[in-house]
User: What shape does this take?
Amino acid sequence: MGTVSDSVPFSELIQHPRETTLRLDQAETLRLVRRNQPDLMLATVERAERDAEVYDVTTRLLVGIIAQEPSREVLRSSLRGVFAWTRFLPDDGVDEFLTELVDVARASAELRNLRPVSQVIIEWQHTAEIYADPELYGRLTMEHSAEDDFGPVEVPVVPEEDDE
Assistant: This one.
């Protein structure tokens, strides 16, 4: 039995495509390491379809469990077991995160696109970071008066990739 994932330089795929793709007989996936760019993942269609099916079933199972209306405390406890950072969210924030996560996961499963689920998790994790820092939380939630307005804000400039 092969490994779950092997890594090879992207140039190896370009120079030896047949030999490189044959490595998928030994590994579930092949990580293509690229210089100055995000790595790529190579997998068989069978593997990708199997992963999508497992994700779809898992999402439907989660939706079915929630439809049984378990207590909010059970749901919060389960979520905190998966995402430890939710301990910094207030209970209603955990409830809101769970509702949004399930809704987006269900819609994403139908589209077979997991990116929106990842985005929801990232956004709520950042919210938890704010709650975890009392000074930041205080600054972001304090009341502002008209005198606090410092005028228009310049549009931020996105650096070019070569500037990094």
Remarks:
- The chain is about 55% helix and 10% strand.
- The first strand starts at residue 5 and ends at 9.
- The first helix runs from residue 10 to 15.
- The CA atoms of residues 14 and 20 lie 9 Å apart.
